[in-house]
Amino acid sequence: MEPKERSSDKASQEMIACMAQAGQQNAWDRFDSQLPQCGFGKQGICCRICAMGPCRISKKSPLGVCGATADTIAARNLLRMIAAGAASHSDHGREVAHTFKMAAESENSDYMIKDELKLREVAARYGIKVEGRQTKEIACELADVALSEFGKQEGTLISTQVYPPPARQKVWQQLGVTPRSIDRDIVEIMHRTHMGVGSDYKNLMKQGIRASLSDGWGGSLIATELSDILFGAPWPIRFGTNLGVLDAKQVNIVVHGHEPTLSDIIVAVSQEPELVQMAKDKGAEGINLAGICCTANEILMRHGIPVAGNFLQQELAIMTGAVDVMLVDVQCIMPSLGSLSKCFHTKLITTSPKCKIDGAEHIEFHEDKALEIARQIISVAIDNYGNRKGKTSVPKTTERGIAGFTTENIFYNLGGRFRASYRPLNDNVINGRIRGAAGVVGCNNPKQVHDYGHLTLIKELIKNNVLVVSTGCSAIAAAKAGLMRPDAAAKYCGKGLQEVCETVGIPPVLHVGSCVDNSRILTILSNVVAEGGLGEDISQLPVAGAAPEWMSEKAVSIGMYFVASGVYTVISEPLPILGAPNLTRYLTEEIEQELGGKWAFECDPIKTAEMMLEHIENKRDALGINKKGERKLYDMADRRAISVE
Amino acid sequence: MSKIIASAAIRGAHKIAKQAEEILSKAIEQKGFDCPVEFPNTGYYLPIIYSMTGIPIKTLADFEQVTQEINNLLPPFVDDDLWLPYLGHTLDAGMATLFAEEIIEACKYLIGPNPVDDIWLGAADDVILRERGIQFVDGTAPGFAAIAGAAPDVETAVTIARKLQERRLYVFMSAHNNGTTFAEQLVEGGVQLGWETRLIPFGREITSAIYALGFASRAALSFGGVQPGDFRRNLLYNKNRIFAFVLALGEVTDEWYATAAGAINYGFPTIADSDIPEILPTGICTYEHVVSKIPHDNIVEKAIEVRGLKIKITEIPIPVKVSPAFEGERIRKEDMQCEFGGQKTPAFEWLRMREISEVEDGNVELIGPDIDSVEVGGQLPLGIVIEVAGRKMQPDFEPVLERLVHTFINEAQGIWHMGQRDMNWLRISKEAAKAGFKLEHVGKLLHAKYHDEYSSILDKVQVKIYTDLKQVEELRTQAQAVFAERDARLAGMQDEDVETFYSCLLCQSFAPNHICVVSPERPGLCGAYSWLDCRAAYEITPTGPNQPITKGNLINKTAGQWDKINSFIAKVSGGNVERMSQYSMIVDPMTSCGCFECISAVLPLTGGIMIVNREFSEMTPCGMKFSTLAGTVGGGQQTPGFIGHSKHYIGSKKFIAAEGGIVRIVWMPSALKEEMRDVLIQRANELGLEGEKFIDMIADETTATTEEEVMEFVTKVKHPAMALESMF
To answer: CATH 3.40.50.2030: which residues of chain B?
Structure first.
């Protein structure tokens, strides 16, 4: 297969060709070997939950041994995917919370509270007294409150009572899906999907919804908020991206995975003069740090560290022969890296006790010795520089862009210090310059041409004046294609969106972070509702979400919490439920009555865009903002009627 | 494209900040750190800095904090490639510019060139702020046009200015273009500048634009109850209440862009005649932020549309323009075609209520010769008799409506009016006469204005204008009898005679906790609203800001408290104020919005009180100037020992009756004492105090400037307040 049919990204095409030439296997090749994939698995109607099975549902045998229907089986499988996804994000959140607690409590921790303003804002939201208190005191209390959200046995998540619009909280209360505690809601999925517990697919789904909400508004949100406080809230920042950011003349360290705790420290020490001198002594010009996947996004957002690529580029990065160390923590790390790195001098270093890989060196990361371990890893990379075998083949392709948008800094970016607000955003949605907004997020998947789904969808949306916010590997795809350059507005956008982008000086695709930072999209939506003029609930907003190249269970949890937050969500590869007709109808149609959002499946990114645009226009109609009104002119009585705030 | 504007504004901000730094170090070098800094006779220190940061600039040394603030705000220059978001930065740069410009202008007052020079006026003092600022609050002035630069020629400048005046907008002028200024062009075009005509030349440089924006900030502080440092509220108050905009005429420099960016923070958009980039998306301003290349013949209309302003222009069938902006025009003798009254000829004006069948609506009659019958500069007698009828009309409204003759006639361009009743004085300019103005037009004007503003109580209005000497004299005698009768009725009207007082919530949208309770013996503290006015206003707009309040049962006779008034206050103030006294400044005193004419404050040592009026800008014996005192008293707070009130209330029998009345007065500015002389003497006589003697016992700024000096003075003259028991 031609590299062009595998990836739409030039640098990747180059490296895919390289791999083919060298006879190296990659994800695309292994995908081909897997074909045809299991039809029962695809449809979600294979049950391996008990030892009476495995059972597969067909016309001939419509029930499992226990009597479970296709709907029950598919719902249980889906729930377990949600549990895995929610667990991954939330465990990430927990790690951050532990590091945060250590930083707050310990006098000589390698971590410190970097953003006191955000600490105070978040603490106040969590009901912690902030006035007249020291940073340390507040941080310690916030750490305890945040950690207790994971395992508490009473009540509901604090964040779900203070972050979402009141109307949304009411919807959840009425349906009985307000999350209670992060771990509990995941555990309950495992219980409810055990053999012989629940079989009513709707009642099963309620727990899936609840656990997903405990991810988006709970674990992920905690990860985002505490990371911002600990490592500093992001601010618009320039960055370079694609494999071309690797520099053959420098020691290249690629961080890959998801968590910021180690990578942020690596950033802090990587340019220490002693280390740089060490590198120079070895003949390198310096130390070059780059990232892949969401660890990359974390340090990009806060420090502008270049991004070498997204999920499907992890193998390609090693293939350049210029990566001296690939440092991984957790999630989305292909096991294939172990054997692939063996073919090069590249050292694959695992750092989390949760993630060891055959063929990798393990240097376990401990937060209480963060600086020391970070320096050790960098030294390994420097030492390894001299071991490069033969010529490196780093593609020249790079692109630049702007990242670092957050729920909080949108206020400043739209009004400066004195008029900070979301008003210009809401105003321009209401007046139709911006038709609406879309979150385009998620992974890569060799079932689609790499990045093609993201880029085609995003370009279609911005052409139709829909502002796009993006996270994760989707954001990296957009950045590589130049869609995060501010001048992309003039090149790709409809007139209205272009005008707004040019007024604010932003690109039409806003990078809001890693995949736990999808919580930023939720809080942005809450702020848009609070700003006023676009209804009382997220479900009324002219917005939609999409994951056009998704593959991980985390994406299922993300999609579910967006749907449950009232957002229409279109994904490419259908959820593995199509063999369960009632469940499919429920999730793609009926659920909208209950939660305001629903799922849709569409592989064609142009069609996906059309579906999202139609939804956005329908929401605009319902809000009554599609009617072309006369400009309202104000006389004194009108002016008195507007409140000053 | 906005990037060009952002880049220019940020460059301009850096330049102006540098200028500020330079002039400041020069000022410090010449005058020293401790040199006091102020805009003369203004409150609120340097108002933009004070309202945005809360920093009260008192000396040159205080500027250090502000320069730090400017440096924090000044953003980096915008990159040509891969720029970072610049909207927030541009707005911050704009605010930094305004701070820097205030530093520059303040330093100019110290080391020159003096901002007040030739036609240039510099900062508006507090008296002007009160008189004029209130017009923005009550809607008399919908907003202002801040003009930067100059029109291409004098004629265009005059046309633009007239159009703005006609729309009742104030015109604040600064900066120059092509070697001239808009203000100088108006002077050349023979247009009268000044606060009276709403055409205000602030200064030749763009930095003087801060007098316009400072005025806006002060209006929010003074009338809006906005606290210093509460920048957000101040700016939103301006966005939503004061409909101002910038007209950029001529080449837009970096410094103009920077200043315009500052104005956008206030929600004031820029409308330019030149070909500059536009910023059309909305959000900071109500609609567009910058529109450009607007032809001069349409620029005023476009500006009003961009700002989102609705201005009603009533077409009145007379040959001159009508607008409150022409109210302050003077007509010099040389420019006069003809005059009436003014002690030179017999004259009067009289509004009377008739039966509906007796009035033919729109009928205007002239009885006697017209202005073309006398030579230029000549005189004629004049009687204006306005006969009105309406189902809701009441005899008590006659004086209220009659007083408006002054305002209505003055609004016509080229017609000047002064006085009232049989003390009136009218001049018609040569220019108006040339335009075809005749006496019947006075009638047509009055007919149109009464219908326009009072249609809810008036159904029919006819006007008879007499210039025949004999008839004028005869009718004047009749009118004088009516005036005397009215005075007697009004003078005798006591709070006890009525069952209903009126609320005045006119200012409540600006001072949310404040409610005026207007009774016959205690008019509104702004001096503009008497009990009768409120009653008329209620009849005119039943759902308006003046509502009748039934007094209910008297619960404290001395202090003047009634149960239903109290419960009304509690309800309307949202529980903030539970009780309010009509006659006491100690027990539950009435709150104030900020519009008061005078403040009374207890001078505890003396057992008496001082009264200071807004026009008095010097220090008072209580240790605070009027402007500082106003901050203590205003904003809807009850502050025992302090009240804001009208001048008229000083002459009321109920003036702090609970504390003993005017006998407590131990200090007033001499000018106020003079103004109130007759009333004070009469009141003192009524209280058995020997009026003439009592008034001399009141200290003023010539005899005492501190409380101790007042004490000495009153001890020496044996002021009767000394014998009274303590006020607390």
So the answer is: 2-307
